[in-house]
């Protein structure tokens, strides 16, 4: 069955995630292979309109002298313009308020870098903490990004344990996660066809 009509993710894809999740690979890197396969299956297979590109950028939230790079994935159209952004972190990021804040900040930095280059009206972004998903959407015309930014509640105190809690509550591998991906991919493909005409 094609991705657009699937009722569930293919068992083979779920197996890839299960094997990767149970390996002791360093942090986020254990998810790059499975997500590469997921995005290729969902967006790219059978088409030469899009391709997946691994990107690196310095982590602007780390100390200036730190050599810390963020690796993220971008689905590009044939003109190498972004139509989907995905930041992938380890599962443990979902459990710590400072990590959730950092994941949100990094996602917003990607929008600062890419939204104006998006060839379609909305640029979707997927913040993935393991398989926990938070969906972002940037409007190219207004520059608005949803969900809206939530600042530190009290500037001179640590973050409360529930800060941004529950924001990554959709499992991308669940049926609801599949439906959300189908909705996003349908939008991307429809808008890309309109722009291409």
3D structure, described in words:
- The protein contains four helices and seven strands; from the N terminus they run ααβββαββββα.
- It has helices spanning 11-21, 29-44, 97-114, 175-196; strands spanning 50-58, 69-77, 82-89, 122-129, 132-139, 145-146, 170-171.
- Strands 1, 2, 3, 4, 5, 6 and 7 form a seven-stranded mixed β-sheet that branches.
- Helix 1 (11-21) packs antiparallel against helix 2 (29-44).
Helices, strands, pairings?
Elements: H1 11-21, H2 29-44, E1 50-58, E2 69-77, E3 82-89, H3 97-114, E4 122-129, E5 132-139, E6 145-146, E7 170-171, H4 175-196
Helix pairs in contact: 1-2
How can the largest sheet be summarized? Answer: 7 strands, mixed
- Can you tell me the residue ranges where pLDDT is under 50 for at least 5 consecutive residues? 62-69
Number of helices: 4
Shape label? globular
Helix content: 25-40%
Report Rg: 17 Å
Query: First CA to last CA: what distance?
Result: 28 Å
Q: How many beta-strand runs? A: 7
Assign the structural class, choosing from mainly alpha, mainly beta, alpha/beta, alpha+beta, or little secondary structure. Answer: alpha+beta
Order of helices and strands: HHEEEHEEEEH
Give the overall pLDDT as a whole number.
85
Report strand %.
15-25%
């Amino acid at each position: 069955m094609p991705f657009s009509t699937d009722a569930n993710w293919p068992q083979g894809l779920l197996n890839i995630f299960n094997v990767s999740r149970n390996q002791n690979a360093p942090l986020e890197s254990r998810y790059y292979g499975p997500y590469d396969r997921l995005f290729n299956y969902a967006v790219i297979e059978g088409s030469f309109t899009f391709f997946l590109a691994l990107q690196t950028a310095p982590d602007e939230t780390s100390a200036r002298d730190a050599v810390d790079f963020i690796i993220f994935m971008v689905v590009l159209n044939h003109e190498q313009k972004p139509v989907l952004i995905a930041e992938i972190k380890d599962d443990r990021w979902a459990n710590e308020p400072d990590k959730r804040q950092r994941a949100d900040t990094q996602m917003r930095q990607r929008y600062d870098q890419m939204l104006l280059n998006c060839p379609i009206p909305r640029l979707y972004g997927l913040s993935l903490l393991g398989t926990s998903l938070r969906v972002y959407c940037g409007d190219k015309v207004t520059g608005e990004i949803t969900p809206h930014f939530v600042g530190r509640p009290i500037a001179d105190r640590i973050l409360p344990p529930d800060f941004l809690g529950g924001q990554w509550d959709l499992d991308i591998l669940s049926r609801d996660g599949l439906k959300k991906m189908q909705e996003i991919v349908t939008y991307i493909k429809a808008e890309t066809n309109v722009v291409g005409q």
